[in-house]
Amino acid sequence: MFPEIDHKAVAALLRGQGCANSLKMLLENREIGSVSVGTLINTILDSFSLALSFVDSPNPPQNYESSSSQNMPRLVSRSPFKKSSIVLDVSIRAIHALTIARIQHCRKICGVEVIEKYRDDSPTPLLEDGFVWRKYGQKNIKTSPHQRCYYRCTYAKDQNCNATKRVQKIKDNPPVYRTTYVGQHTCEALSYAVSLNNDDTHCFKMIQFEKCNHVMSESVMPQLPSINHQEITMEDKATDHMMNLEFDNNEFLVDDDKIWDYDFSSLSSTDLMFFDNIAASD
DNA sequence: CTCATTTGACCTTG
DNA sequence: CAAGGTCAAATGAG
């Protein structure tokens, strides 16, 4: 990797980390000034999208424009440098972590017991969402050529956790996976943390979300599996993710305008999440 | 051997 | 009755 590009990618990640910390404080009801959650999320998404853009890809985005482009450099060209799996890995994890942050924020808005179900449309199946899932079923769906997979929390029995989720591919080219969460985690794995270890002597804690005053430990969440376990390659992920930046902007779906208008109305949404059936969940 | 996944059967709902 | 959701035995990976 070229040192200059490496520096830029790290700078983007650090910028995202700073905003993530601010977001964390906001979510914990600690005042940090007039910055809104929506602004912070935009900035974090931009930062990690920028970092992703520093990863080599066979089909680089040509028209990516930051949702806060007045503050961020526009991506106009890409250098033929070797891809950084670490940058890609942490960026994708951070974007997924944002989904969790959004859940927690919306729970505060609507009340913890209200949000029982939400969807996330992402270019990759949302498997690394901070919880440990066990697959318990797979079905052909009449309205879709793709099968739907059913997961429940690994701790469903041990800790009487009733959280489940369904993952289904809803579109090809670019691939879009819909992850539907039902129920709430009552297990110990409610916290989510992402740490990054590189191969050398450094150990960065790039981004970390906490809840309930304890941080996910290795014993609670023993693995944050490498993204390599999925069928598509790292390059595919980077490409698909960037392609979906544009795709998502064109198909931004909002079921509950009141929630999204609260703070998320300006989101460019790299990974879509919207709440449905909120009123029907009781 | 243990544990996660697969898959056909069964259950529930409209 | 059809479709979606869940169960549980069989299977496979480590």
Fold and architecture overview:
- The chain has 282 residues and is of the alpha+beta class.
- It has one domain.
- It contains 5 helices and 8 strands.
- The strands form 2 sheets. Strands 2-3-4-5-1-8 form a 6-stranded antiparallel sheet. The chain has a two-stranded antiparallel sheet with strand order 6-7.
- The longest helix is centred in the middle third of the chain and has 26 residues, at 85-110.
- It binds a DNA duplex (14 and 14 nucleotides) through residues 134-139, 141-143, 148, 150, 152, 154, 164, 166.
In percent terms, what proportion of residues is strand? 15-25%
Biggest beta-sheet profile = 6 strands, antiparallel
Strand order of the largest sheet: 2-3-4-5-1-8
Mean pLDDT: 53
Low-confidence parts lasting 5 or more residues at pLDDT below 50? 56-83, 110-116, 191-282
Rg on CA atoms, Å: 18 Å
The assembly state of the depicted protein chains is single chain
GO cellular component, one term: nucleus
Protein name: WRKY domain-containing protein
Domain WRKY: 122-190
InterPro entries: WRKY_dom (IPR003657), WRKY_dom_sf (IPR036576), WRKY_plant (IPR044810)
Produce a short descriptive summary.
Helices cover 33% and strands 19% of the residues. The chain is α+β, with helices and mostly antiparallel strands and 282 residues long. It has one domain.
Which features characterize this protein?
282 residues, alpha+beta, 6-stranded antiparallel β-sheet, 5 helices, globular, DNA-binding, WRKY_dom
